[in-house]
Specification:
InterPro entries: aa-tRNA-synth_II (IPR006195), aa-tRNA-synth_II/BPL/LPL (IPR045864), Phe-tRNA-synth_IIc_asu (IPR004529), Phe-tRNA_ligase_II_N (IPR004188), Phe_tRNA_ligase_alpha1_bac (IPR022911), Phenylalanyl-tRNA_Synthase (IPR002319), tRNA-bd_arm (IPR010978). With 372 residues, the chain is α+β, with helices and mostly antiparallel strands. 39% of the residues lie in helices and 19% in strands. A hairpin with a 5-residue loop joins strand 3 and strand 4. Helix 1 packs antiparallel against helix 2, helix 2 packs antiparallel against helix 4 and helix 3 packs antiparallel against helix 4. The longest helix is centred in the N-terminal third of the chain and has 40 residues. It is rod-shaped. The structure holds phenylalanine.
């Protein structure tokens, strides 16, 4: 700090002379007027009205003046500072008003726009695949039949020629429905869609061409390839002169429409109590078309390098079943098939894990582009 300067001449204190104060004032007023945003105005205030602004520094000089000059300089500097402060307040108010008006436009919310208060789900791919499968058969002239999921044991087993001690009836596969007090109810959760064959035949007269898509149940643990609840598409034809060749043809048309032109199908001997002969239906692997068989360098994940993919079971109707359903076996014959809908979805869309199909995550269903 410098020593008091008693010989200080106010006229010579440059910062306090009237022209200089007027210049500082004019400069400040110009800067305030030129400030185009609140941020800019803040900088202007620091520069022209802050503690280290030229006028604030000039103001400090006043203390060192003799009393007479003090009042004069004080009036001049104080007046200039008040005017700047007023100008600052006015500009601040203008800029705030502009900002508020802009925010009202920029951040406007149209409260009249419609919105969906309940997020929409999506159709499950099993449903859409089942419909596609069904449509293929409807296109061949089949009609759609239905039956109950809680089914009489008679339809699920007896009418289909399962003898009372057939292993499929045992507790290992079948969900039995308990009657009152734990009594035998005679009801099961249907283990396949084949009971619909019998219902369809009892409901209508031959000729019969039906498909029955639906839910089926078996006491399997949920894992990547099994689920206690799954779906099948049953098919049944009963007419005069029906042979295994018609069955081959119907399956061939289905596979080509569902998976691609030119894919071959084959039948492997099997056993079901309600068909004779019985077969498992395979289709050619639509990815490798058999090329991966015996070629360790190009394994196929879709068919595990088997070249063939199993899609269901089928066979010529056992006359015992036709008789149980009241059909004249002298005149009519028929065949049936059961296709796995989960398997079809897995192969048609590359779904690898059963968990995805049963968990009901809308992100899974929406991924198929099947929103309603
Ligand atoms: N119902 C049999 C199953 O679930 C499939 C099948 C249907 C076989 C029709 C032959 C005829 O395995």
């Amino acid at each position: 700090m410098s020593a008091p300067n008693n010989s200080h001449d106010p006229v010579e204190a440059h910062a306090l002379n009237p022209d200089e104060v007027a210049r500082m004032r004019a400069e400040a007023m110009e800067a305030v007027a030129a400030a185009n945003s609140l941020d800019q105005l803040k900088e202007v205030r620091i520069a022209h009205a802050g503690d280290r602004s030229p006028l604030a520094l000039a103001n400090r000089e006043i203390g060192g003046l003799p009393p007479a000059a003090k009042a004069d300089a004080g009036k001049r500097v104080g007046g200039a500072r008040r005017e700047i402060s007023e100008a600052f307040k006015t500009r601040q108010a203008e800029l705030e008003e502009e900002r508020d008006a802009r925010v009202l436009v920029e951040e406007a919310v149209d409260v009249t726009l419609s919105f969906d208060p309940i997020p929409r789900g999506a159709r499950h791919p099993l449903t859409t695949v089942a419909e596609r499968m069904t449509d293929i058969f409807v296109g061949m002239g089949f009609e759609v039949a239905e039956g109950p999921e809680v089914e009489a044991e008679w339809y699920n087993f007896d009418a289909l020629n399962f003898l009372p001690d057939h292993p499929a009836r045992s507790m290992q596969d079948t969900f039995f429905v308990e009657g009152p007090g734990g009594a035998h109810s005679g009801l099961v959760l249907r283990t396949h869609t084949s009971p619909v064959q019998v219902r369809a035949l009892l409901d209508r007269d031959a000729p019969v061409y039906v498909v029955a898509p639906g839910k089926t149940f078996r006491t399997d643990e949920l894992d990547a390839t099994h689920s206690p609840v799954f779906h099948q598409l049953e098919g049944l034809v009963v007419d005069e002169g029906i042979t295994l060749a018609h069955l081959r043809g119907a399956i061939q048309v289905f596979v080509e429409r569902m998976f691609g032109e030119g894919l071959r199908t084959r039948m492997r001997p099997s056993y079901f109590p309600f068909t004779e002969p019985s077969a498992e239906v395979d289709m050619e692997c639509f990815v490798c078309r058999g090329a991966s068989v015996g070629d360790p360098d190009a394994p196929c994940r879709t068919c595990s390098s088997e070249g063939w993919i199993e899609i269901g079971g089928c066979g010529v109707m056992n006359p015992r079943v036709l008789t149980a359903a009241g059909v004249d076996t002298e005149r009519y014959s028929g065949w049936a098939f059961g296709l796995g809908i989960e398997r079809t979805l897995m192969f048609a869309h590359g779904v690898k894990d059963m968990h995805d199909m049963v968990e009901g995550d809308v992100r899974f269903t929406a991924a198929f582009g099947m929103e309603i």
